[in-house]
Structure prediction request, 401 residues.
Amino acid sequence: MEHAYGLYTHIQSNQRRSVALLVGLLGLVYVMVFAGALAGEALSRNASLDWLISRAGHDWVAAAPWATAGTALWILVAYKFHQGLIDRVTGGYEVSRGEQPRLWDLLETLCISRGITMPKLKLMESDALNAFASGMTPQQYSITVTQGLLQTLDDAELEAVLGHELTHIRNGDVRLLVVALIIAGVISFFAELVVRIFFQSGLTWGGGRRRRDDDRRGARGTIYALLIAVALVAIAWILSLMIRFALSRSREYLADAGSVELTKNPDAMITALRKIEGRGDLARANSAIMEMCVDNPREDFADLFDTHPPVQSRIDALVRFAGGHDPGPIALRSPDAVSGEGQAEPSGAGPWGGSRPRSDVTTPADSAASSSSAPQPWGAAPQPSQQPLEPPRPWGEPRAP
Prediction:
């Protein structure tokens, strides 16, 4: 009960923080609008800083409804077309029960256990170990799994990953993240627009537009206003990135916890994370799609812009709050090593797990075995020229020489 209480407290805390972050992200849109209004006033006339800020405030009031409508339109367009764009970028395609019965049955069982509408199931041809959920409506929701993940994880681990992504859908995380990405796109658009206006207009901005009664104070006010506008643009853009990534990081803890709630198996989620750790980079995916994945191995400067918390932190939370056990880093054999070995057995082990003789030592038994076919269950005899009489078979019938 103590672990469960801590787990749900952790979930509630992250939910409140996520709402606050999203509100802050929306607020940055209006900061960008004010920065644009201030830059526009500064580039249109020379005046004192106080006068320019006052005029920019009036412009902001007039432009705010248009900015709100533009952001809503942007979200509407993404609502209609974002899933198709994601599938084109990743190459994901929908699969049926007949095509992937194992994956389908695991997901269907999770959905039935909680009365959840089953999302579409998609497969991505990639050796990377990753998965992500996408969509903004129940009709669009889908879970995409890479081929590498399907081949590497066992059923319990794969079920844990599916539970992780299903939790993103249950909690509205997918819709929340898509909206956050869209709003961040609006901020980036405004930032680029203001910077372009500043540099293009700054090249032609000179004394010819100044009136004779402009004084030095007015000129300084214009310069200060431009500097403030550029600073607001830079700060809003950086904060939008930080808020977006912080939003994504908080969601991953929630999804891990939700997977444990669905599967009742924290150890499976932990071992799945250990296997996925550092092996989930999707070459065809951009940074926006990587934010929605189970893990994002792409690192940024000083971890400031990492979209996911470290795997170790997520595992520590599962150990502390869900009572899981951490086996430590798990080494996986690379596909190249496996294909290079062909059908050979792992070195140092025989067909039933016993030790094998050293390859650099040759014994008479080795020479005889190498000249005959693979051993039979009862131990096939060598040729008559090698041994005069074969030991009796299991039922005791000897063979003549």
